[in-house]
Amino acid sequence: MLTRREFAASLLGVAGAALLAAAPSRADTPSLNDLARRSGRVFGAAMRADQLAAEPALRKAAAAECGMLTPEIHLKWNSIENRKGSIWYEPVDQLVAFAARNGQKVYGHALLWEQSTPDWALRELKARRNWRLVSDHFERVLGRYGETIEVWDVVNEPIDTQGGRQGLRRNTFHRVFGPGYIAHALETARHYAPRARLMLNDYSFEYDNHVEADRRKTFLRLVADLKGRGVPLDGVGLQAHLDLGKGPLKRPVIAPFMQALADMGLEIYITELDVKERDYRATPQTRDARVADEVARYLDIALDQKAVKGVTTWGLSDRHSWLRIERGDRIDRKRYGNPAPNRGLPYDAAMQPKPMHQALAQAFSGGLT
Question: Mean of the pLDDT values across residues 105-129?
Answer without folding.
Answer: 97
